[in-house]
């Protein structure tokens, strides 16, 4: 099945989207959580193993590796596999804590992969700047931040106190540095093409998603005050409003130009980024509310927002899954497998 084909470098986003739902928003729906969540978690682990095998099999091919090197922006999609593995490891601990020792080994392996990915990121940032390709950058390069902060959450969950606070903060600050650098590159694109709503990319939703996972890392670290975390939460809310308003305007424009089916109901693998970012905002808010529930500062707004967002996360996941299943029926490569990534 994989002899002549390769898996898309960003296919890990599928695991990220379902995994973050099962970590967070599923708890808002008692029936799903009680009757389906454990089985779905087990199924997702199997799918992750299958897709991860396909990815490493693809990496064994020279043409695939060359494509990653020669496509500096798209190569950041490799970060989905780091984040997806972190999500899966967290999910295993949540649903099967007895497997902690196994997950610790997986976490160490994921850390090694993250180091390799960051080395790739640094190389590709240099290439993007040297070749003056900043006008083509989009949210995918923010996976440098997403992967880094996912490692923070994973190490906190798997190693607890053994993960030294100073090292934890260093990881978080590094992720923030990656965000500032990447958003500067993306900003140069917006500066030259902001009038064209059709130029907006699916992955640009990671603009707020990367801040959400940073906020989650702040909560999980236990080293930051409620005031600091709330400040970050409101930044996410602000960016969420701007980005998703642009998405709605873009959707309306696409419907007017292409019709409903081609305009917004056509599957593309990058759409899973939206599911993940919405789910991550939920998970960040969920952890914020539950960690500081005994605080004297009321979080009633976040509580109400959480309930609303949970439904949005579920509905979007159902819609995207439906588009994916239609794609499976009508296409021969359901995991976006192609000869070129």
Automatic annotation (TrEMBL):
Chain ranges passing through the membrane: 12-30, 36-59, 71-93, 99-120, 140-160, 166-188, 200-218, 224-243, 264-285, 305-330
Natural source organism: Psychrobacillus lasiicapitis
Superkingdom of origin: Bacteria
Keyword check for Transmembrane: yes
KW Transmembrane helix (keyword) present: yes
Swiss-Prot/TrEMBL keywords: Membrane, Transmembrane, Transmembrane helix
Protein name: Voltage-dependent anion channel
């Amino acid at each position: 099945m994989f002899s002549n084909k390769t898996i898309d470098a960003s296919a890990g986003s599928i695991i990220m989207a379902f995994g973050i739902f099962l970590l967070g928003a599923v708890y808002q729906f008692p029936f799903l959580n009680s009757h389906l969540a454990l089985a779905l978690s087990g199924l997702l682990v199997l799918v992750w193993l299958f897709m991860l095998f396909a990815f490493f099999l693809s990496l064994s091919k020279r043409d695939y590796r060359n494509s990653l090197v020669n496509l500096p922006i798209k190569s950041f999609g490799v970060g989905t596999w780091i984040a997806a593995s972190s999500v899966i490891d967290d999910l295993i601990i949540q649903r099967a804590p007895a497997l902690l020792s196994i997950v610790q080994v997986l976490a160490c392996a994921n850390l090694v992969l993250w180091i390799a990915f960051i080395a790739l990121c640094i190389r590709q940032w240099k290439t993007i700047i040297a070749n003056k390709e900043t006008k083509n950058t989009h949210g995918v390069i923010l996976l440098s931040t997403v992967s880094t902060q996912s490692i923070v959450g994973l190490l906190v969950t798997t190693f607890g106190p053994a993960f030294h606070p100073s090292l934890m903060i260093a990881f978080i600050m590094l992720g923030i540095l990656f965000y500032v650098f990447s958003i500067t590159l993306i900003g140069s694109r917006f500066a030259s093409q902001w009038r064209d709503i059709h130029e907006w990319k699916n992955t640009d939703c990671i603009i707020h998603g990367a801040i959400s996972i940073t906020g989650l890392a702040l909560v999980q670290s236990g080293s930051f005050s409620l005031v600091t975390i709330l400040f970050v939460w409101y930044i996410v809310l602000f960016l969420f409003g701007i980005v998703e308003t642009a998405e709605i305007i873009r959707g309306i424009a696409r419907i007017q130009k292409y019709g409903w089916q081609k305009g917004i109901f056509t599957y593309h693998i990058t759409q899973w980024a939206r599911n993940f970012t919405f789910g991550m905002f939920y998970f960040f808010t969920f952890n914020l509310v539950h960690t500081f529930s005994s605080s004297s500062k009321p979080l009633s707004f976040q509580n109400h927002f959480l309930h609303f967002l949970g439904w949005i996360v579920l509905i979007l996941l159902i819609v995207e899954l439906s588009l994916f299943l239609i794609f499976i029926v009508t296409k021969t490569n359901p995991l976006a497998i192609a000869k070129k990534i």
